[in-house]
Design a protein that fits this description.
- The radius of gyration is 19 Å and the shape is globular.
- Helix content is 27%, strand content 27%.
- Strand 1 and strand 2 form a beta hairpin.
- It folds into 2 domains: 154 residues, Ribosomal Protein S5, domain 2; 103 residues, Alpha-Beta Plaits (2-Layer Sandwich), CATH 3.30.70.
- The chain has 9 helices and 10 strands.
- By secondary structure, it is an alpha+beta fold.
- Helix 1 runs parallel beside helix 2 and helix 7 crosses helix 8.
- The mean pLDDT is 95.
- The strands form 2 sheets. Strands 1, 2, 3, 4, 5 and 6 form a 6-stranded mixed β-sheet that branches. The protein has a 4-stranded antiparallel β-sheet with strand order 8-9-7-10.
- It catalyses: 4-CDP-2-C-methyl-D-erythritol + ATP = 4-CDP-2-C-methyl-D-erythritol 2-phosphate + ADP + H(+).
Length: 278
């Protein structure tokens, strides 16, 4: 049995800078890995079946983990069936990248288990077919992201703690993108500019998310009492950086919704993953 983590991420900011001819939006963002993780267990089988458990309310074949397994299977030099069990700690529909991270971890593990012999670039190319931020989790380093989120420049970030709130709502990304008030023409910026004034870098989805989902607005107003509240991804999670003046226990205890205290990571724990005997 193989048990491995799949870490979440925060978008420290998220700007939409334009739109491609095919309708896809261009963005700029910083992807920050955090130590809130799902855990995946892989049990080899004696037959040829791929099974998935741990998400009873989701059709297995619609899950990114299952799709990732099917995607890499044609490259297998030593294929065997596998039971994949997901221990879900990253909330779904939260903007934390849990599904993409699970898919990335699956590609990394099965690449070794099935002796596919794909390098990171090849795995990232497969991952991009599953989702724009899967390559980020495969490479496992904090990054300045552009394009659809797949153009990555790896950056060093100061290690920090964050309080993350998960409002009791599930945000429709499609609905946010459909809003006429969504800002889609933010001026392209640079990592150097972000380093100078990080608190001024926001998320273009925040105003529409707060307008459409009162739970998000409530969570942001709560965190704004203690720091600068930000939306991650398209939500629903919001977060703020921990500072020395905060009473963390009190903030979490009085939160209007589920709250997490998380640490930033300098790299994904999956970077050091290696099967015994490989």
């Amino acid at each position: 049995m193989i048990r491995v983590p799949a870490p979440a991420k925060l978008n420290l900011f998220l700007h939409i800078t334009g739109r491609r001819a095919d309708g896809y939006h261009l963005l700029q963002s910083i992807f920050q890995l955090i130590d809130l993780c799902d855990w995946l267990q892989f049990h080899p089988r004696d037959d040829q079946k791929i099974t998935l458990s741990g998400l009873d309310h989701v059709n297995s074949q619609d899950n990114l983990v299952y799709k990732a397994a099917v995607k890499i299977q044609p490259f297998a030099q030593n294929f065997c069936g596998v039971d994949i069990a997901i221990e879900k700690n990253i909330p779904m529909g939260a903007g934390l990248g849990g599904g993409s991270s699970d898919a990335a971890t699956t590609l990394i593990v099965l690449n070794q288990l099935w002796q596919c012999r794909l390098n990171l670039q090849q795995l990232a190319a497969l991952g991009l077919e599953l989702g724009a931020d899967v390559p980020f989790f495969i490479h496992g380093q904090n990054a300045w992201a552009e394009g659809l989120g797949e153009q990555l420049k790896y950056i060093d970030l100061v290690q920090k703690k964050y309080i993350v709130l998960k409002p009791d709502c599930f945000i429709s990304t499609q609905m946010l993108f459909s809003q006429k008030t969504l800002t889609r023409n933010s001026k392209p910026t640079t990592f150097c500019a972000y380093q100078l004034t990080p608190s001024t870098f926001g998320n273009n989805f925040e105003p529409v998310a707060r307008s459409l989902y009162p739970e998000v607005d409530e969570a942001m107003r709560y965190l704004d009492q203690f720091g600068v509240a930000k939306l991650t991804g398209t939500g629903a999670c919001v977060f703020t950086e921990v500072n020395a003046e905060m009473n963390i226990d009190e903030i979490i205890a009085n939160s209007p919704c589920t709250a997490y205290l998380v640490n930033s990571l300098t790299e994904s724990p999956m970077l050091s993953f290696k099967l015994i005997g490989n």
